Amino acid sequence: MAEEPPLSEERSEVERLDKKYVFGTWSFQSEVDPTEVVGGEGVRFTDGSGDEFIDFSGQLMCSNLGHSADAVADAIAKQAQEGAYFAPGFATEARARLGEKLAEVTPGTLSKTFFSTSGTEAVEAAIKIARMYTGKQKIVSRYRSYHGATAGSISVTGDPRRLKAEPGIPGAIKAPDPYAYGSTLDPMESLEYIDEMLMLEGDTVAAILVEPIVGSNGILVPPEEYLPRLKEIAHDHGALLICDEVMAGFGRTGEWFGCDVFDVTPDIMTMAKGLSGAYAPLGATIVTPEIADHFEDELFCHGHTYAGHPVACAAGLAAVETYQEENLIDHASEVGDSLGDRLEELADAHPSVGDTRGVGLFRGIELTRDPDERVPFGEREDKISTGSTVVDDVAAAAADEGVYVANMINTLIIAPPLPITEPDIDEAVAALDTALEVSDAAMDR
Ligand code: PLP
């Protein structure tokens, strides 16, 4: 075991224990230095020193309901008391009613759901279902994408997080992205490239898997015609369209799902994060009746002990009911429009803001050290940790101003809880206004 690094006297007991006994995610362990958090209320949370932050990224773009959704907390407690766990072979009311609810809120005929406990598991299930249904093995996904950390989902992930896991599963093929600001390929041209790819792969591709609006790789919103055409391309080549809605789903975009923004129903959709508002670990993979029917006669060779965990499903059901009862999807659309306007004002005021983009409460601020040439701030030396140090510094400066904002690959990712109000947005944008002075000062001049 490596020698224990010296501990700062300023660390709390929780921070010291955590540092010593917990493996940090996606990090050099020597750099892991977590801040203790003690609670949250609405769109804010509080750290161990009592400092309060506006949660402008909804933690990992998942706390869509904020930190005090009592109906969800009560549903969890009730289910845990009445029957915390029954094996997936039993039907529970929570799972059955959540299945029915997902058929109601997802588009088109999507109606039968496999439940799991995370986004990565939802994607693993989607890959297996697509392969079994089509009898084909290849999955086409895109470079600027994230689909999870387990063997299959990291293999179909395109960003540098996949590199340590390579070669990954066979048959994972990457295509270019609709990234108007930073790619030399026009988004619609990138589609024709995918069309050609599928033609050249012959009849061997099971599915095209995309985030309808790319999340952690920089909030990439394709043109209106992109997703409908992508579905057409997939079907022309006998492949399915899988939409990964793990981050874009459940009101984030001001619609129920990212694919609703483009009026497209995929063949398979994956969900997690906002599905339970992050009150419980819950993932889901929903399919059309045609795909579900296929498994009447082919063994669905997949499952987990915690598939359809009653407590997680109770949380999911209460979360979806809360989106509906509190009209949070429409609210996200309304306040999302003014958030977009406020971010454009930031872009006008700060030369280091290269681009702001997004829909609803799903927005990104991409930084640049040279706006004319659109040059990103430098990459990290290891090339695997995503993002530049400048974007980290901007996020740290925002935290000093009382706003927590996530960042990846030169982009600040803004995805607050849906109940956020205009005054909260004003407060958070004022903090970003101060924080962006850090990137302005780091530009090439
Ligand atoms: N898919 C997308 C689009 C994601 O953004 C994520 C996580 O950020 C995942 C899948 C993986 O989800 P999880 O971290 O719950 O495994």
UniProtKB/TrEMBL annotation:
A Gene Ontology molecular function term of the record: transaminase activity
Keyword annotations from UniProtKB, A to Z: Pyridoxal phosphate
Claim: NADP is one of the keywords in the record: no
Superkingdom of this protein's organism: Archaea
GO cellular component: cytosol
One Pfam family it belongs to: Aminotran_3
Record-linked InterPro entries: Aminotrans_3 (IPR005814), Aminotrans_3_PPA_site (IPR049704), PyrdxlP-dep_Trfase (IPR015424), PyrdxlP-dep_Trfase_major (IPR015421), PyrdxlP-dep_Trfase_small (IPR015422)
Family annotation (SUPFAM superfamilies): PLP-dependent transferases
Cofactor: pyridoxal 5'-phosphate
Family per record: Belongs to the class-III pyridoxal-phosphate-dependent aminotransferase family.
UniProt name for this protein: Taurine---2-oxoglutarate transaminase
Organism (species): Natrinema salaciae
